[in-house]
Each structure stands twice: as C-alpha cells, then as structure tokens.
Amino acid sequence: MHSELINEYNEEKKGAKGFKALPLRPVGAVECRWAHILKVLNKFLGCYSNVERRMKSGKTRKDVLTEAKELYKTSSGSCFNLNHCWGILKDTPKWQATQQENDGQGKKAIQAQSNSQSTVAAPSSDMPSSTPAASSPTVVIDSNEDDPENSRSVIGNVRLEGQKDAKQKRAEDNAIEKIISMQQDLVQISRERLSSMQASMQSSAYEAVMSKDLSMLDKDSRTYYQKKKRAIIAREIQEEKEMEEKARKERDLKEKKEKEEKQKKEKEEKQAKEKAITAHNKTEEEEDEDDAKDKAEDEAEPDVEDEAEATEDDVDEDK
C-alpha cells in the first residue's frame, strides 16, 4: 500500500516544475550503505590521525585534511569522496572520544613493543666474545641455570610481559567495544531518521490522494480514488484507536504502579508504627519490672535507722 501511494504521488507530480520524485529505499539498502560509509570513514580517520600526530607548526587543519586525503589515496588506491559525511561526524563527541582512544592505544602498543625489544637473553658461554652487540638496547643476563637469582629474574620478566600483553588486549577490546557501540548508535539514529522520512512521505502521499479532484476523472478512475480515500480514512481511524489504546494502557500501568507504591508505603508506615508501639510497651514492662524489683529489694533489706534506734533503746534499758 505504501509503495503504491508513493508511485502514484510521483506519477501525478512528475510534470510539476522542480519536482523531485520521492525515493523508496528498503531498510536493508540503507544499512548496507551505512556500513560502507563507516568502513571508509574509519579508514580515513586512521589516516587523518596519523597526519595530525606528526603535524608540524605552521600547518592548518586544511593542510592536515589535504595530506590525509593523499595518504588515504596512497593506501587504498582510491580517492576519499565522503567529505560531506566526514564534515558531520568529525565533530561529534563519540567520534572524538574514539579518536582519542585509538591514539592512546597506538602509543601504548609502541611502548609495549619497545619494552619487549629491550629485554633479551644473553648468548651462551660457548659463543665467542667478539659477537657484535644488537642495535637495540639489551639487558645482559647470565645464562647459568643453577643461579636461582637469574631464574627468578627470567620468570619475573616473562610474567611482566604477560601482564603487559593482557593489559594491552583489554585496552584494545575496550576500544573495539566503544567503536561498536558508537556504530550501533549511529545505525539507530539512521533508522529513526529513515522511519521519520517514511512517515513524512506517507503523509504527503495520503494528502495527494485526499486532495485529488475527482470531478474531472472518468468513472473507473473516480471509483479507484474513492476506494483509496476510504482506505486512507479507515487506516487513520484505526491508527487513532491504536494510539488511544496505547495511551490507555500506559495510563493504567502508571496508575497501577502508583497504587502499588502507595500500598507499599502504607504497609511500611504501619510496620514502623507497630514496631514503635511494641518497643514502647516493652519499655514500660521493663520499667514495671525494675520498680517491682526495687520494691522487693527494699522490703528484703532491714531498716538501718530502725536497727539503730532499737540498739539505743537496748543500751538505755541495760543502764
């Protein structure tokens, strides 16, 4: 139905001055084109970053762009023809973050390679001492296998190299994940734009059919367009019903969540109140128990003053 309306609209407007036919491209074709764009731009980004890193003072961004295009042409054998795409993507935050991440990974890889070349085993004692030294910096290690210090040194170097390799691999994996995430976001954006374009084209096609003057058409054409109009009206009514149903479900879901949250809050308040009452009652019981205990102790202990008076009376009687 959508393709038929687009074709009818293009057929009707093709004689108008300055009219451009509405394109009808499937999603698969758009995704294929987008994948090609990303592949080319990623390769050009590498060339641009390479030129930018060795940019000398006095050169402008325009000079960097020109040299990057020349480097791309030399490495790929074809000219870079996606300047409009590069102009849009080069200033996006995710693209800049990816560029910085790739620069960091390149520096780490060079440093790791330099470190791996700087630690080598020394020649055995059987080789002549006149062997020329390597051009790269070396660390001479005695090949005596019985020396535990040398063994620990070799094991430590191997472990250090393994840690560097694992760290570099994790960094590379993180960079790849970021690039994939960025590409997925860009694909999602292109899908949303494509959906918006299709909706706009469909609206234009509907408008062309609904505004068609049927008075000048023959009977068959009039019947055809009347049928199309009824189909458009029925579809719009159905879409309105679906939107209302969707809004109703969202409203019911929101009310349900609010009700559940309210019940949960009331339950928590009730539990807190019951807990406070229980604690208060427990405190009163403990106080009553303490009072009863004190009273019992008072009754059990003799009155010191009474005993003193009784003693004085006994003394007086004895006198």
From TrEMBL:
Region (Disordered): 97-152, 235-319
Start-end of Polar residues biased regions: 111-120
Positions of the No apical meristem-associated C-terminal domain: 80-232
Protein name in the entry: No apical meristem-associated C-terminal domain-containing protein
InterPro entries reported for this sequence: NAM-associated_C (IPR029466)
Superkingdom of source: Eukaryota
Start-end of Basic and acidic residues biased regions: 236-283
Composition-biased stretches (Low complexity): 121-137
